[in-house]
Structures are given as C-alpha cells and as structure tokens.
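Re: beginner question about structure tokens

> Can someone show what the tokenized structure looks like for a real chain? I only ever see the sequence side.

Sure, here's an example I had lying around. Input first:
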Amino acid sequence: MKGTDDADGPDSSPERNGDQVQTRLTTPTEPIAVESAPQFEELLAEHSPVLVDFHAEWCGPCKMLEPTVADVAAGTSGTVLKVDVDAHRDLAQRYDVQGVPTLYLFVDGEPVERLVGVHDVPTLTELVESQA
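And the corresponding structure tokens:
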C-alpha cells in the first residue's frame, strides 16, 4: 500500500525548477495520527493543503467521520492528519476546538477553513482540492 507511515519519514524526490532543486514530498494516502505537537508543526510545514481531523475515541460522530477522512486522504492531493483531542489538549486549545469532530484546512501552514460536525466525502474533497 502506498503511503508515508514508515518511521524514517515520507518518500521524497527532487524536482528541478529553473536553477533550483526542490524536494516534493509524496502525499500520504492514509490519514496520519499525530503523536506530538512538534510532529504536527512539522507535517504542516511539509505538506499543503492539510485537512486536520480533531476527534476523540469516545465520540460517535467522529467514528462516523473516520471512513470519510480516509477516503479524502486516498482520493485527494491533500494530506490528512488526525489529532486526538484527549491526547493533545494543547493543540485542541490552540485551535479553539470546543466540540468534536472539528476539521481544519491548513494551506501553507495556516488555517484557512474550519468545519464542525460530520461532512460527506464530496464536500471535504472539494474543500481540499480547491486549495491544491
């Protein structure tokens, strides 16, 4: 299965742009479970656009949304992150997450859109692809 969930980090390949060589990271095809605030910041810096699913294990609507965000990860050029609000209260507080599920779309490391509640694949796909 294609993805970037190995411990050494994502695949990358050089891409020539004029006289500069840029490294483009392969877009993960599965949601990435955020393990720490520094990892979260690193992923936001490395990928764009990024859809972040702030969720909780005990949340019924979050469980309903899980296959949807997996489909968005597999079917778009965006990266999908999953942040457990109970494990990462600091991130939930920083982004003013008061209810779950809360979804944020980040572009170039900055939040540009916030959605609360369950949404369907076409809505989230359109949101991500509009910023790709």
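Each token stands for a local structural state, so reading them left to right follows the chain. Residues 1-24 have pLDDT under 50 and may be disordered.
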